[in-house]
Please model this.
Amino acid sequence: MKLKFLLGFFLFLNGLSAQTTESWNGTFEGNILGVTARLIGHQSDRGWAATIDANNYMINIQGSIAEMQSSGTISDPQRGTSIPYEATLNRNQIILKIEDINPNSGQMEKMEFAFTRIAPAPETNANQSSSSGSNNSADNTTHDQSLLGTWRYTESYVSGDFSFATDWFLWVNADGSFQYSDGRTAGGGSNSSIDSGNGDVHNAKWKTENKSIFVDDGNGWQFYAKYYKEDNNLMLTFGNGKRQVWEKIE
Model:
């Protein structure tokens, strides 16, 4: 009787272990053509979304899951290309398979990359998030509280006596939601003026991991930008290398 109990208890613990490790959620590390790369995966009822950061070269993954198999599309924002992928999850390792041009050889090749889990998925409870104490420290929270508030980004244009500016706004909330506006353009010159009006306001969800912002506009979590905050300025660095500096106004 005691033996049966111990055997059952062992199987129960083993089952818990399998549920914990065999998950597409979490942070995985691997190597892509000699470059150390980090994969952050998010599993949901819609499927699987992931981002690969290979020395600041960002790659997005979006696909479906059938138990330990996944397939879908892997996209490269820098090149503006998308290709199919297949992936297998084996407890703490994801094997990613693609067919693409090898930049080292210039030839189309079937390539396989292994990513090993280095951290589980962070808790998704917003109440467990905390404010970032230093811009140089790792951000392991679900929602970096230092990003809360109203932010504005402005682009200006001047030609002769004609000038205009376009403002975009972000309203970042503690509950993991945010709103963003269409750009409003206003300006003019000696003979003309322009004002596009406020435009529409859109809703989405946000979260942060390892100094990166991820957004979900209804199509699953996607990498948005890396960020660096100093005082009331927020610098966003996108996957294509473009940067924007936003100003906190409230």
Notes: Residues 139-248 form a domain with the Lipocalin fold (CATH 2.40.128). Helices lie at 2-21. The chain has two domains: 25-119, 139-248.
